[in-house]
Write a structure and sequence with these properties.
This protein has one domain. The radius of gyration is 14 Å and the shape is globular. A two-stranded antiparallel ribbon has the order 1-2. α1 crosses α4 and α4 packs across α6. By secondary structure, it is mainly alpha-helical.
């Protein structure tokens, strides 16, 4: 699944597919789905629109902004592999954002969640 999302005023392409968990593991030496389950606890209390204002403090305790940035980076990297436009390393990529746009980055997490097929066939 691919989507253009505006983050910190920048229109960026993000993609999540079968390559994304592999890139995540290579880049961060951590499990894509395990980290996603931890993040899911934070978003479960935010309501249908993932509204941070509606979140409970105990739910936000599970929020790891570093993981949110890692998911955004690896989805941007997946999109860049499809486009054959390599992107810089993680620290340079994150450094180009002027602010921490939680709404923009959470849309990337929605893209990841929408990309996971959980239906029995």
């Amino acid at each position: 699944m691919r989507k253009e999302i505006t983050v910190s005023g920048l229109k960026l392409d993000f993609e999540c597919n079968a390559l994304t968990p592999i890139l995540y593991k290579q880049e961060f030496q951590s499990d894509f789905y395990g980290d996603l389950l931890k993040m899911g606890k934070a978003f479960s209390g935010m309501g249908k629109n993932n509204d941070v204002i509606n979140a409970k403090w105990e739910d936000l305790d599970h929020m790891d902004l570093t993981n949110l940035l890692q998911y955004a980076y690896v989805c941007a990297k997946t999109a860049s592999k499809t486009d054959r436009k390599p992107i810089s390393n993680y620290y340079k990529w994150v450094g180009k954002f002027n602010d921490l746009d939680i709404v923009g980055f959470s849309q990337v997490l929605e893209l990841v969640m929408d990309s996971i097929d959980t239906k029995k066939k």
